[in-house]
TrEMBL record:
It comes from the Eukaryota. InterPro entries: Cupin_1, RmlC-like_jellyroll, RmlC_Cupin_sf, Seed_Storage-Functional. Pfam families: Cupin_1. Signal peptide: none annotated. This is Uncharacterized protein.
Length: 290
């Protein structure tokens, strides 16, 4: 997604494709800006790094829209075909990192977005008489309805939007890292939070991966370990050193990492990490439901 040229609206279009169709996509929405309603052909999960936003969500198979407030530390699931819009109702930038699965997308390894309103709306491919008949209105009304939004992807409304959110709407699709149980915790060393279909219901049947959030205290070590699945790792804070060992004990990675570094760990490869003086944290997905 990209800036549509309107004041105050911006987004980072830096999607990176990795092995097995996995992707990472940092996204920023400036204060009081609105990402117009859309859906996509791929599933992704987001981890909020900074700020807050109101998100409208209609999941596949549901007809009622949910409205949720998400803030730093929240994880939100966005299955493919999900209808969403995003509004930054705060006074600072809203920053989120998405990790996703684009292996089965229209274009393998890429997410394709379908906007509902605006100049690039998917409905613009229909003639006015078709749209009028579909909506049960005359052609003049249809023209007004489908051309009333001049923006493309992100707009800045003239007035602040007031949207009522409900905590109950978070159930199954949003979970804060502090609300999830530790799957591993070492006092003064760090902890790992795991999110699966057991504590984030939207993952069941819609995603082929689970989620981990790992936090190491300064100078602590994440001892060597492996998953029987591919792991995509995004460093969210701090710095440190990561090593990965593969077949026949070959070193496949030995590097210093910092915030915004991205790593791919192949299935059965062993990863270890040592945090620097400020600690080391990462958000990751593993191509296994467990």
């Amino acid at each position: 997604m990209a800036d549509n040229g309107e004041s105050g609206a911006s987004a980072a279009d830096t999607t990176t494709t990795h092995e097995d169709g996995l992707i990472d996509f940092p996204f920023k929405l400036e204060a009081q800006c609105l990402l117009l309603p859309h859906y996509a052909d791929c599933s992704k999960v987001g981890y909020v790094l900074e700020g807050r936003a109101v998100v409208g969500v209609i999941l596949p198979g549901e007809t009622k829209e949910r409205a949720v407030l998400i803030k730093k530390g929240d994880v939100i699931t966005v299955p493919k075909e999900t209808y969403t819009w995003w509004y930054n109702d705060g006074d600072t930038d809203f920053c989120i990192i998405y990790l996703g699965d684009a292996a089965a997308g229209l274009t393998q390894g890429l997410i394709t977005y379908f906007l509902v309103p605006g100049q690039a709306a998917v409905y613009n491919g229909f003639s006015t008489d078709f749209l009028a008949k579909a909506c049960g209105v005359n052609e003049e009304a249809a023209t007004k309805l489908f051309s009333s939004q001049p923006g493309t992807q992100i707009i800045k409304p003239e007035k602040k939007l007031c949207v009522k959110t409900h905590d109950r709407d978070r159930h199954g699709i949003v979970l804060h890292e502090d609300s999830a149980r530790f799957s591993n915790h070492v006092p003064c060393g760090g902890h790992v939070v795991s999110m699966t279909k057991d504590n984030l219901a939207a993952l069941e049947g819609r995603f082929r991966f689970s989620i981990n959030i790992t936090k190491l205290e300064p100078n602590a070590m994440r001892v060597p370990g492996f998953f029987p699945a591919i792991q995509l790792v995004y460093i969210t804070r701090g710095s440190g050193r990561v090593q990965i060992s593969g077949v026949n004990g070959a070193t496949t990675l030995d590097k210093e990492v910092a915030a915004r570094s991205v790593l791919v760990v192949q299935k059965f490869y062993v990863m270890a990490a040592v945090a620097g003086s400020e600690g080391l944290e990462w958000f990751s997905i593993i191509t296994s439901e467990r």
